[in-house]
Design a protein that fits this description.
By secondary structure, the chain is of the alpha+beta class. It has two domains: about 50 residues, Translation initiation factor 3 (IF-3), N-terminal domain (Ubiquitin-like (UB roll), Roll), CATH 3.10.20.80; about 80 residues, Translation initiation factor 3 (IF-3), C-terminal domain (Translation Initiation Factor IF3), CATH 3.30.110. Helix content is about 40%, strand content about 30%. The strands form two sheets. The protein has a four-stranded mixed sheet, with helices on one face. The longest helix is centred in the first third of the chain and has 18 residues. The N and C termini lie far apart (about 60 Å). The relative contact order is 0.12.
């Protein structure tokens, strides 16, 4: 139907002529209440945003000489973060002469990965950047504890 006819029909019904698919050949239009149309579209968008899950990267910092109690405490925090569905970046920060003992930092991160292997998987292996050595672990859907 032509645009004029469609506009005439829409004014008779006291509704609006809304273009639904402008890319189609010929363009698709509907005779509807535009306010209601906008409201429903906003509701759909809001629902989609509600269903989205934003992944957050939490960071836990260690030093090469971190004691066992501190390590256990921070590891428990990491387990909580992973159970909440967040990724965890564990970093070992080296200060001054600690850089000479990189193997201590690597052992610490391997121990960290070992503790979390039941509920997570390594997303980014251990790597050294500047004065920090880090690893990123993400929640593992298969091995998730209940």
């Amino acid at each position: 139907m032509s645009v004029r006819e469609a506009l005439k029909h829409s004014t008779e019904r006291e509704l609006d002529l809304v273009e639904i698919a402008p890319q189609a050949k010929p363009p698709v239009c509907k005779i509807i209440d535009f306010g209601k149309f906008q409201y429903e579209q906003q509701k759909r968008e809001k629902l989609q945003k509600k269903k989205q899950h934003v992944t957050v990267l939490k960071e836990i910092r260690f030093h090469p000489n971190t004691d066992t109690h501190d390590f256990d405490f921070k590891t428990r925090h990491a387990i909580g973060f992973i159970e909440d569905g967040n990724k965890v970046k564990a970093s070992v920060i080296f200060k001054g002469r600690e850089l000479a003992y990189k193997e201590l930092g690597e052992k610490l991160l391997e121990k960290f990965i070992e503790r979390l292997e039941e509920i997570s998987k390594v997303e980014q292996p251990i790597k050294f950047e500047g004065r920090a050595m880090s690893v990123i672990v993400a929640p593992d859907k298969k091995n998730k504890k209940k």
